[in-house]
Write a structure and sequence with these properties.
Blueprint (H helix, E strand, L loop, with lengths): L2 H6 L10 H20 L6 H27 L16
Length: about 90
């Protein structure tokens, strides 16, 4: 195959799915569909508000830790027990 033949041939593109990026989303969708199939009240207002209320504490902690990590320090640096903590 000459150089002219290679350049004239169309480039084949393959669809590659990155499961490292899409895996958690696909797992969430599968769990969501299983929940809908198993229980008729899965999408009810009461269930959704209950899940959000129980998840709020973890969400607040996660946002707080994100601020601490992006600021470049740990909360223990300003704590009164700081001298007893190793560096």
């Amino acid at each position: 195959m000459s150089q002219a033949d290679r350049s004239a041939a169309p480039a084949r593109r393959t669809l590659r799915i990155n499961l490292h990026a899409l895996g958690p989303l696909l797992a969430l969708i599968v769990l969501f569909l299983i929940g809908i199939a198993l229980h008729e009240n899965f999408l009810s207002y009461a269930n959704i508000t209950n899940v959000l209320a129980r998840s709020a504490f973890i969400g607040i902690i996660a946002v707080g830790m994100t601020f601490v990590i992006t600021a470049g320090g740990w909360i223990s640096r300003w704590a009164p027990w700081r001298p007893s903590l190793p560096d």
